[in-house]
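Tutorial, part two.
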Amino acid sequence: MAIKYIYTLFLALLISLFIGFGIDAFYPGPVSPSYPAELNAVKPGCEETPEQQNIRKEYNQAQNKFMEDFKPYNRDVSVIALTAAILILIFSMTMLSKIKMIADGVLLGGVFITIYSIIRGIMSQSSQFRFLIVSVGLVIALILGYLKFIKTNEKD
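Running the prediction step on this input gives:
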């Protein structure tokens, strides 16, 4: 019996990784600027040369641009992941409903992807988007709970 639960969890994790790595492979994010080697030579207690100050200023500007570019990327990834989660959850509740063990693994994978989507939505640093993504997650959880636990018990 334990092997069924392990398989269900394993399937859920694989589905989550499949979606997460798929998004990363086909929608790569902005690249973080690398720390300049010239600034590693600055010794504690010593002042930076004017050249090093310029390099630090350029690096800080590039880092700030990266952080600003990363916010909409997180929002986009959140929407993509949430869309994938909804499709996976619908697939699990309809097409796979007869194959209980696989359906449960796919369903749990969809739940994990929803959690991932909410986390990426929070990282977008937009309070309206965070509210929207958490609201959609709440609706998904309520519908899934009803369909999986209440409606199933009504049939019994």
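The helical segments are 2-26, 50-94, 100-122, 127-155. In part three we will examine how such features are distributed along the chain.
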